[in-house]
Amino acid sequence: MPLEAQPAADLAGPRDANGFLADMPVPDRPRRVVAFKAENSRGTGKTPHSHRRGQLLSVLSGSIAVSSGEGTYVVPPERALWIPPDVRHDTRHLSMTQLRTVYVERNAALAMPGRMAVVQVSPLLRCLIDAVTDLPPDYDESAADGRLVSVLLDQIAASPVTPLHLPLPASPALRGVADGLLADPADKRTLEAWAAPLNMSARTLERRFKAETGLSLRAFRRQAKLFRALEMVAAREPVSRISDTLGFEGPSAFIAMFRAAFGVTPGRYLSERAGA
Prior knowledge:
The chain has 276 residues and is α+β, with helices and mostly antiparallel strands. The protein folds into two domains: 3-158, Jelly Rolls; 172-273, Arc Repressor Mutant, subunit A, CATH 1.10.10.60. Helix content is 36%, strand content 20%. It has nine helices and ten strands. α1 crosses α2 and α7 crosses α8 (251-262). The radius of gyration is 19 Å and the shape is globular. 36% of the residues are buried. Keywords: DNA-binding, Transcription, Transcription regulation. It comes from Azorhizobium oxalatiphilum. This is AraC family transcriptional regulator. GO terms for molecular function: DNA-binding transcription factor activity; sequence-specific DNA binding.
């Protein structure tokens, strides 16, 4: 049986010298959904590929960057990325990442977004994804398992699209700056310090960075902090440690930024994540 048809299996297979997975096509099984669990190390990923099915990448912990002709999406915990059928994309894990991947048959994906989109994973959707991942590959579409899949598909289609899209620059030089900030959002280097190794002025760097991402370097750094904060909050790191790691003046400043971005405090975010 092809690996991607196996529920609850870790993602494995042939990898290149950088640890990136070679293309592994999703099997043409007569089921609307094929799902599995995966855990990937930081820096690994999958080279450009596409699927005949739509794909929902649901992140439990860590974060993943997915690039296509539409741009680059960075997906933090408790969010999922919908990728329509036939969209060519590559993946890169920015940290140790735990995923649930749901492949949706083309006709069953007609109600989903027509382009790549980051969606909120509600407690109900999270439970449905886990339950469907544990189904046998040849589950009975006409019985209770098929009805469970129908509810899952309805919930994916109804999930609100979130603005948590962190665009990455296309040019290698600016991508290095972005990668540096994603690796260490607390890096306090000035525009001049980032620009000097690139033989650019600070003004040129800012102009080019905004042209390629739509964000100033300052705004990008703030978004990178938010994404890392989501990772650490989901891992139940203490607020004081998160604040120190991300370079805030104190926990109150971090909590204020988190609440401004997500509408709740980190503690409330955790309770909602648990379904409270």
